[in-house]
Amino acid sequence: GGKENADTATQSSGTKLSYEEQKELNKKLKKLERRVADCESEIEQTESAIAILEARMATPEGASDRALYEQHQKLKQQLDSVMEEWDAVSTELEAVRKEQ
Asked: 76 Cβ partners below 8 Å, 6+ apart?
């Protein structure tokens, strides 16, 4: 019977996800959640590195050290790009969670 096949097809295209789709979604979620966590720890590390640099730049010796300023710039840029990625991944994660 071709009939019961048609029935199951309409079911899975409804709001309820099929088992396969749910599995795919879960995999995607796990990956995104891990990415968000990675970004968050990278943000923390970068921020503390920046804080350490800024403390050194506040000293008389540090204030005249060009290398510290260059490193500070680099870290700031790194922080910006990680923040951007974190933002994008978080948004995607929200979207995937809504699909569930």
From this structure: 50
